[in-house]
Design a protein that fits this description.
Layout lengths: L2 E6 L2 E6 L8 H13 L5 E6 L6 H16 L3 E6 L2 H9 L8 E2 L20 E11 L2 E12 L6 E9 L2 E8 H7 L4 E3 L2 E6 L7 E6 L6 E6 H14 L11 H11 L1
Parallel strand pairs: 2-3, 3-4, 4-5
Antiparallel strand pairs: 1-2, 6-7, 6-13, 7-8, 8-9, 10-11, 11-12, 12-13
Helix pairs in contact: 1-2
Length: 254
């Protein structure tokens, strides 16, 4: 198994030259974890040279992303082959894994794929729908934040393009729900024990008894939510609102 690591400018670059499959995935993941955990730089680039990505490779990349988040690193995945980028995009993981297509040139900082204030931030993760006390259907949950709509996080849940439901949630409510039960009416959020160090986050959308209950990874969502506060700090949301446009909408609707 061929893994090389070097420091490039202000980041650690880890090169993976083997195809990741079911036979080497566990061993490779342990080696990558060791390199990420021992790193002092803030940014880590995982440079994947393999021409193909199997399901086991996506699992390893997601695990490394979660490990880097837990250790306070920003992990970017460099995919050189168009086919590998297509596989990641079809899996709905392009934004989750922070895909880049080339290393930064000398003298330039590591690229930030989704942090510019003019662009929205998004994260896609697994969500589980609860039916009574039973963990039911697994869905994809996509959380999106646009600085132009600074008070709101948009949640899209579904199993495919044809079957999706969308809700607008208060960013402040999501933040409060990370540590304690929060919300009122048709939207409630609270932390719950579960897999991983930080457990899970539960969201109930709809009236008590008839609403839909979902569960997502709390630590991953908390890390993503903190990035939205880097773009638009709390208590400064009003600076990003076009109040003239809002007034025009109100007049038009009256």
């Amino acid at each position: 198994m061929l893994i090389l690591s070097r420091r490039d400018e202000d980041c650690l670059v880890i090169e993976v030259h083997d195809v990741i499959d079911g036979e080497n995935a566990s061993s490779l993941q342990r080696q990558l974890f060791d390199l990420i955990e021992g790193e002092q730089q803030n940014s880590v680039v995982l440079d994947v040279h393999a021409p193909l990505l199997y399901a086991s490779a996506l699992t390893v990349l997601l695990a490394c992303h979660q490990r880097a988040d837990a250790d306070g690193h920003r992990l970017l995945v460099l995919l050189r082959e168009p086919l590998t980028r297509t596989v990641v995009r079809l899996a709905g993981l392009h934004d989750v894994l922070n895909i880049i297509t080339s290393l930064p040139s000398a003298g330039r900082s590591v690229p930030k794929p989704d942090l510019p204030a003019a662009r929205s931030l998004s994260i896609t993760m697994a969500a589980h729908h609860y039916l009574g006390l039973q963990r039911g259907l697994a869905l994809l949950a996509r959380f999106e934040y646009a600085p132009a709509d600074p008070f709101v996080v948009t949640l899209t849940l579904g199993v495919g393009e044809a079957e999706q439901a969308c809700w607008r949630l208060s960013r402040e409510l999501l933040q409060a729900g990370m540590d304690a039960r929060a919300g009122m009416g048709d939207v409630r959020v609270w932390p719950a024990p579960g897999r991983g160090v930080s457990g899970t986050l539960r969201l109930r959308i709809g009236p008590e008894g008839d609403g839909a209950l979902f569960e997502v990874d709390r630590s991953r969502l908390a890390a993503w939510l903190s990035r939205t506060f880097d773009v638009v700090p709390p208590q400064r949301e009003g600076e990003h609102v076009d109040w003239d446009a809002e007034a025009r909408h109100l007049i038009a609707d009256s």
